[in-house]
Amino acid sequence: MIWQIELLVLAIVLICAVAAITVKDLLGAAILFGAYSFMLCLLWAIMGAVDVAFTEASVGAGVSTVLFVAAVFRTSRRTKD
Amino acid sequence: MKVLGTLVVLLFGGLLIYGTLDFPSWGDPAAPASTHVSPRYIERTLEETSVPNIVTAVLADYRGYDTMFETIVIFTAGIACLFLLRVIKREEAEARMYRHIPTGITLRVKQRARLPESMEEFERIDLMWVPYDLIVKTGCRLIIPFSQLFALYVIAHGHHSPGGGFQGGVILGASIALYAISTNLRSGLAWFGEKAAVLLCGLGVFIYASTGALCMLLGAGYLDYGALSTLFGVDPVTARSHGILIVEIGVGISVMAVMVLLYYNIVSAGRQDEGL
User: Fold this and answer.
1) Distances (CA, A) of A60 to B17, B44, B89
2) What value does the mean pLDDT take over residues B166-184?
3) Is residue A80 included in any domain, yes or no?
4) Contact in structure between B223 and B215 (CB atoms under 8 Å)
5) What integer is the mean pLDDT of B239-266?
6) Which end of chain A is more exposed for a tag (fewer CB within 10 A), N or C?
7) Which of A54, A67, A74 is nearest residue B162 as measured by Cβ atoms?
């Protein structure tokens, strides 16, 4: 695997992770968390753990984002802190 | 408080990272896992279970007991969510919204007000979510059958390719949630009801556990699928592969039902009348 791409994906993972916990808009945080999961899924696939990557893509990027959005829909969109 | 929290996180995060220094480095051929555990599975899995995907064989056969309790964890999560969020006592909302289908006019009917005589031309819509989006509806209608077919493929083809019960079940559950999002929660509930979801999430665990019990009845250990060979009329190695498929189907059913239950309860705050 090309190491530049690996490094780029890892950088995006870190950026998304930090952004997801700092952003004030909770819907944005849910979307960023989905992006984080998807990039992590790419990282698993790069490391050859295809089954883990598949689980990360379906559970992390798919269903948990939907559940977060549903929770934001029922609560408030902005954090208090 | 916030400073204290940051300090605690940094301290324990640092400790965890310090702990990883003792791990063998990634892909180290001299690591215990590479010298003892992995070669055993890589060399013997195909001749013992006739499953080319070693991960599936380890998950559902060698570590089958582990995976059974993982399924039970998911089942428990679904049931716990149901008990925490579900509001059984049905209190009527202060008003209901209806759309007149031919004209697109929306009506707001107050509580205990008289509804129109014929409901054929009206469709109930949510108070919070009124826009009608043809593109989303049609797009989702196109996507849903294919995603469900793909989910079934993922479950059935878990022996040969990445995937299995957990992933396939999640995709199936997501397709039902997608239907509920693209129309509304009531259509989702009419298609895949709450009773069906609760029954199926128990049924999946039951299929898994009873497969293990069946192996015991046939004279082998719990979840020792080789014993199923007399039942299927195949040799014990192929019977292991069939046993893995059965428990994967059980896992898929359970996971799908739990995902749907979680979605229904979170999106409607447990009332299951209005929601995305």
Assistant:
1) 23, 32, 33
2) 90
3) no
4) yes
5) 91
6) C
7) A54
**In this predicted model, what pLDDT tens digit does every residue of B181-207 receive, in sequence order?**
888 888 888 888 888 999 999 999 999
Domain total in chain A: 1
Q: Residue holding tokens 């849903």?
A: B144
Here the ipTM equals 0.88
Name chain A contacts of B173, Cβ cutoff 8 Å.
63
Residue B199, Cβ density class (10 Å: 0-12 exposed, 13-18 middle, ≥19 buried) = middle
Contacts of A51 in chain B (CB under 8 A): 53, 55-56, 162-164
Over residues B52-78, mean pLDDT: 90
Domain ranges across chain B: 44-86+131-267
* Domain presence at residue A29: yes
Residue A81 lies in a domain: no
For residue B93, the model assigns a pLDDT of: 67
List chain A residues with CB under 8 Å of B262. Answer: 67
Contact A66 B170 (CB under 8 A): no
Asked, for residue A79, whether it belongs to a domain, the answer is no
Q: Which domain holds residue A39?
A: 3-74
Distances (CA, A) of B158 to A44, B179, B224: 18, 25, 19
Chain A contact for B164, CB < 8 A? yes
Tokens of B44: 């013997």
Instruction: State yes or no: pLDDT of B111 exceeds 80.
Output: no
Q: Is the pLDDT of residue B177 over 80?
A: yes
Q: What phi and psi, each to the nearest 5 degrees, are found at residue B96? A: -125, 150
Mean predicted lDDT score pLDDT of chain A: 89
Contact B255, B170 (CB under 8 A): yes
